[in-house]
Amino acid sequence: MVHVAAVQSVVLGVLSLALFVKSQYEFRKDQKTDHAFPPIVMDFNKLTGHAGKHAVPQGHLRPLGFQSKPRSSARVYRLFNVTEFTSKHVMKRPRTPAVFRALLNVSETASVLTDEMLKTKFGDIRVPVWEVNDSPLRFPKPSRKKLAKLIEKFDYKLWFVDGPCPEEMLSLFEIPAFLPCATSTLNYSADVLPPSIQTANLWMSSGNTPAPLQYQPDHQFRCLISGRWDLIFIDPQLKDKVAIKEPVPDVKRGYTEMDIEMINLFKYKRVKDAPWTWATIRPGDCVYIPAGYVYQLRSHGRAIGVNVLINPAATFEEKCDKIGTKSIPLHKVLTMWTTKEQRKVPTVIGGEDLHMDAGIAHRVVLAMLRNEYRLTLNQFKDDYEQIMFGVPDSGEATDAFMVLDTINKGYISRDEIESLSESALQFLGLLLDASRHTHQHQHEEL
Fold it and tell me: Which of 26, 136, 156, 262 has the highest Cβ tally under 10 A?
């Protein structure tokens, strides 16, 4: 019988050797997309004959998913109907993920997105790049690299792109045409309501690439163009079992503090008690992830996809059914936010020369509110600092919020937002306008 200490010693030795080799040499990542998922869960203690205090927890020092078998797959639809999707996943509580097979025809798009084409046409564009091992809890902002450098290196580096799609690249992609049909459930006049689509993000990765276990404040509708995505879903009521923390209170954006590739079950003992569901997404498939739902995405092969972020206050009315399964070019979709350098900037219809008036400022505040009953200082600060990032003399978010929260409660209610004064909104519009006309002069990676 093999002693558990000897087994652990061998495992640690192999891991140390692997880390040493990795530090000395760069190997091209495996580009296969035929990996087994969900993973095969084996009881290590049965193999070694150990029990009790000598037992090693099942899935110890293994990636997420090896600690317990999945409860089931996520709900999968092969025929798409907007009304059914809305009633079963958007309006129904609790909201749950859903997978839609072959919702987009991506064969032509995938054939166009070659490395050579991307480097030639878009190589100088900077994109937000995350490191696999850099938790957003420690590194809240990605680095920015030229797309050409990313393509040259990310077959070897643990890099991936998951952030706003550069404006110059929007015309490359299409999304389901029913998505822009979304309308807000908030009871405001149509000229004040913000677009229901917040923005569209780009995903790019190479080889086996795990993203953090996380949840986000907006609904996500992710569509894959090439490669493969494997997803793990965990009920948000169980987020404490998987050690998820919110970097900013009230914002409803959270990430696990665990090393998702080597989960220490002596420290995080409750992971095995978190039931999970799963999905595999292939080119042309789309997956809906509700706001606040805990998920982890792992990509394989040369994976490229688009993620449409939808305001959780939005829904799809019966009229959207008429659109069916048509698609629409991404550059023709009106979004609440565009990206300028590293800032998220409110969209102004009519061109760069127009200024943000009280009406646009009102839409910005409603977009920040989402489907909450009040907008707190922390929520406002999170968005405001992204909008004003790199803007000289932009002032503190706290000072800007006091223009809205005149009695310093620390929040403004929905009713108060509806009746904000014209002068307060005009002043906020002037502050926000600086984000559109400022050029950032700071060091970025080549």
Answer: 136
